[in-house]
Write a structure and sequence with these properties.
8% helix; 63% strand
Length: 208
């Protein structure tokens, strides 16, 4: 996309089909790439053979970047490798261990800094560690939207949860094995939700 005298005067489109891509630490895959609109950095579709991912990057405003992703049966080992390659800050928030994800993810950067996002994901056998919690064998659905910044811990969970939530989140869990800070282990299932300004709501059952 070229500019002349402060105005756009020529836009280019590009496409690549049936290619092979390999990121450091990530398995080889087949891919397709296309670029259309001037502010579109590109759309990348990747197929690992059964696991598929589509990513589209859009420039927004002054130094802004939005990445929209669609996941289809993608193992977290692939996502972990991509996160380490493109945005190590994500690994500081959550450490993915194993499992399969499916759904949509939206991430926002401002002047090169990861600032917020949203996700609507279904999980199968998900295992991860976050803020002192260790979670294993999660089958369920998660919906989250908000900024990537630390907030105040939820009042009723302060002794168990070292992080706060700035955004809205909802989780419907069919089963999960959870190790809380302090080493308390429980098996849990049910619903959890949090809305800023309104607080948390949950209906969970479990056994230690």
């Amino acid at each position: 996309h070229f500019r002349g005298a402060g105005k756009s005067w020529l836009s280019l489109t590009a496409a690549a089909k049936d290619g092979i891509v390999e990121w450091m630490g990530v398995e080889r895959a087949r891919f397709q790439f296309s670029k259309g609109a001037p502010n579109q950095l590109g759309r990348l579709e990747v197929d690992w053979g059964g696991a598929k991912m589509a990513l589209e990057a859009i420039e927004e405003g002054d130094g802004g970047l939005r990445v929209d992703g669609e996941l289809r049966s993608v193992p977290v080992r692939i996502l972990k490798g991509l996160a380490a390659f493109y945005s190590p800050a994500l690994e500081e928030i959550i450490d993915l261990k194993q499992g399969v994800l499916q759904g949509s993810v939206h991430l926002q950067w401002e002047r090169g800094v990861l600032s917020g996002g949203a996700a609507d994901l279904e999980t199968e056998g998900l295992a991860f560690a976050c803020a002192g919690w260790k979670v294993d064998g999660v089958d369920g659905r998660f919906d989250w939207e908000g900024p990537f910044e630390k907030g105040e811990p939820i009042a009723l969970l302060k002794d168990l949860c070292a992080f706060g939530l700035k955004g809205r989140c909802r989780a419907d869990v069919a089963r999960a094995e959870v190790v809380l800070p302090g080493g308390i282990a429980v098996r849990a299932a049910g619903h959890f939700g949090f809305t800023p300004g309104m607080g948390a709501k949950w209906d969970l059952s479990g056994e230690g």
